Amino acid sequence: MGVDVLAEALSITREEAYSYITRGAVRAMRYRSLPYYVLRRPIRGFEEGTAVLVGREGPLVVRGYPPIRRVLLLSTAVPRHFPGEVYVEEKMNGYNVRVVMVDGELLALTRGGYICPYTTARLTREQGEALRGLLGEMEGYMVNGEVVGVENPYTRHRYPEAPLFGFFVFEIREASSGKPLPIPERMRKVEEHGLRGVRLLGVIGKDDVEGLKEILRSLDEEGREGVVLKDPEYRVPPLKYTTPAANLGDIEAGMRFFFDEGRSYLYSRILREAFRVYEEGGGLEELERRLGGAILEPLLRAIEEVEEGGQLVEEFTLRMSSLEEAREFLAFYEGVGAPLLYYRVAQRDGEVLVTVAKAKETFDEIARILETGLSPID
Ligand code: ATP
Ligand code: MG
User: Which among 25, 311, 328, 349 is least surrounded, fewest beta carbons within 10 Å?
Assistant: First the structure.
């Protein structure tokens, strides 16, 4: 029964749908009474992270959020890529969420296509009315936004305007096609319904790379992540660029967990920073100093912590409204394959605070090195 719905939604045969599921390319999930399917890799033009939600009134295909190409050389890429004016939006540092409404309920999907019970509950609680208003009026659409702040399971970055939990809209798209509304129209809808959008930092001519660099300099000074550059009508796909503050900050955060995020973080960020210095000319000594600190200090601190008997875990705290919500989240989180080391639940003033610690490979690796004195890598 369910497989037929999936087959029809993706325009494939029943046999093909069945085979995708048995091979693990599509995962059959359930959120409360809602069955849904998650594409774990691209299938027939549907991007990875696409979800098929089987609501009472029929299936809703929610297209995956497409990857955004990264710019290394602004003065080369920007004039070449864009046909006209460029809208410079702030790129916020959190996690990508698609919000849709099915059977009258709001649902928040992660980049991977899973309905996150925590994000769903918290967004419904904090901005439910505005989101319901917009999605009620725009049937078959999704709201794409970034959840930022420290109270979430995925990322931790404290914004002054949303230190704990904030949601900033950066697109409104038709769910089944992924087609975005033009930027001015989207901004009107966001404002009309009382939602918060990412900041529009400027509209520049495609050759005004100096103007763009000016914007990036002030973002960097404020320690903010960067920009996403967009054609207002999406005639060409958006591009992204991040500040040295973000690139070096990522390295610093990643190197604490050398054997987990460390390696991949370092590689890509070094490339970004090298091309930035090449494009800007000069500034190499400063980069050398900052890079050295960002790489070595967190790693040394991690070694010392393990040596002093510390655990070296990644902890986060979630604010929930009931124990039931906590239970639902923990089951979801372990179900999508995140190994938990421990969790603590505390009830306070009618709220439930759940602190979760993720196990990290790095802890065991460092402990073994301290014990044997031998390297696990060459
Ligand atoms: P990608 O697959 O696009 O490379 P990634 O997971 O590596 O994604 P990022 O490098 O953070 O992510 O860049 C893309 C992400 O930036 C988007 O998926 C979105 O979550 C986030 N984002 C923040 N602000 C914006 C914005 N203004 N417009 C578009 N995306 C934004
Ligand atoms: Mg991001």
Answer: 349
Residues 6+ apart with CB under 8 A from 142: 62, 98, 99, 100, 135, 172, 173, 174, 175
Q: Angle, nearest 10°, between helix axes 284-307 and 361-372? A: 70
| C-beta 198 within 6 A of ligand 1 | yes
Tokens, residue 8: 């029809």
Q: How far apart are CA 366 and CA 377, in angstroms?
A: 12
Name the E strands within the chain: 26-31, 34-39, 51-55, 58-62, 69-70, 86-91, 95-102, 105-109, 141-148, 166-174, 200-204, 226-230, 239-242, 314-320, 340-348, 351-358
pTM of the model as a whole: 0.96
Q: Rounded to whole angstroms, how far apart are CA atoms 180 and 25?
A: 26
Distance 373 CA to ligand 2 centre (A): 37
CA of 92 from ligand 2 middle (Å) equals 7
Distance from the CA of 68 to the center of ligand 1, in angstroms?
7
- Taking the CA of residue 96 as reference, the ligand 1 atom at the shortest distance is 20
Nearest CA owner, ligand 1 atom 9: 68
- The Cα 49–Cα 62 span in angstroms is 9
Give the closest ligand to the alpha carbon of residue 197.
Answer: 1
Q: Which ligand lies nearest the alpha carbon of 239?
A: 1
pLDDT digit string, tens, across residues 177-214: 999 999 999 999 999 999 999 999 999 999 999 999 99
Pocket test for ligand 1, best of 48, 68, 224 (most atoms within 8 A of CB): 68
Q: What is the per-residue pLDDT across 316-325, written as a single tens digit (0 to 9) for each?
A: 999 999 999 9
Is-contact 186 192, C-beta < 8 A?
no
Q: How confident is the model at residue 1 (pLDDT cuts 50, 70, 90)?
A: low
Q: 65-115 pLDDT, tens per residue? A: 999 999 999 999 999 999 999 999 999 999 999 999 999 999 999 999 999
Q: Average pLDDT, stretch 281-298?
A: 94
Cα-based angle 295, 296, 298 (whole degrees, multiple of 5): 85
